[in-house]
Structures are given as structure tokens and as C-alpha cells.
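re: ur question from earlier - yeah i can do the single chain one, its not a big deal. heres the input i used so u can compare w yours
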Amino acid sequence: MKTNEKDTKQGVVPALRFPEFRKNEEWNIPHLRQISTRIITRVGNSKLLPVSISAGVGFLPQTEKFGRDISGEQYRNYIILNRGEFAYNKGNSKKYPQGCVCRLEEFDRVAAPNTFLCFRFNDNVIPDFFKGYFDSNYHGKQLQNVITSGARS
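and the output i got, formated as C-alpha cells:
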């Protein structure tokens, strides 16, 4: 971290603490898999709007983004995504070179391509915090340290 915090094996401890918090434990920084659940429910025969993600814009119907529905035979393998859930599109753009994460806010229920990594946060997590985190591309700053080739690879 590039702040005034020291990173320890147990957790992160701020360099400056208010007196009433000095004896408190370290901050716990969980992994995404610890605070969210991966969504893998396939569309199957359901009739939902096939969508895509446009970096910086959010979810769009495929017909709007590509001029037609491109799902084809793969449609049945698409993932059911509900309002408030998230999807990571590994496709890179100028604003999100390591891919973007978007929260579905435009529609109640859609069919998201199974190439997207879809997830929902656990009940004890505030999704709005992470929407800001992803919109600010902080995930990209972390991913650039581990991605050795293009995000699609």
C-alpha cells in the first residue's frame, strides 16, 4: 500500500491511530472470494435480454452495442445476473486496461456472457463501497501487478 500504513503478516495497521483505537486489532483486508459469491447459474431456456459491458458506461443490450444479438448458440450458457450484482469483463480499454467490473443497475435481470466473471457480495458487505472501488479502477492497479499479458489472456 502506498499510504502511511505498515503492512504486517497479521494485517494492516495505520501509522496514526486515535487514542481510543490504539489497542484495537489490525485492519482485516479480505480477499474478494471471502466476501462474495460467484454466480454460475446458466440461462438455459429462460428468455432474458443478452447484454454486454461497455467500459465507463455499464451494461448495454447487445443489440445496442453490436447492432445485433451476438449470443447465438452460446445463449443457453450465459449467466443470469440480477440488479445489484457485479460482472468482471476481462476486455481491456483505455480507461480499464486490466478489464472493468460493473454493477448491474440498468435492468432487473439479464443474460450476461459466460466469459464474464459474475458475483454478488455477501449480506454483511456494502456493495456501494465496492462499486466506487471498481469505478475508480483500484482493482486494475492491483491486477497490473499480477497480469503478465493482456487482460483477455
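The longest helix spans residues 127-135. not sure if urs matches, ping me
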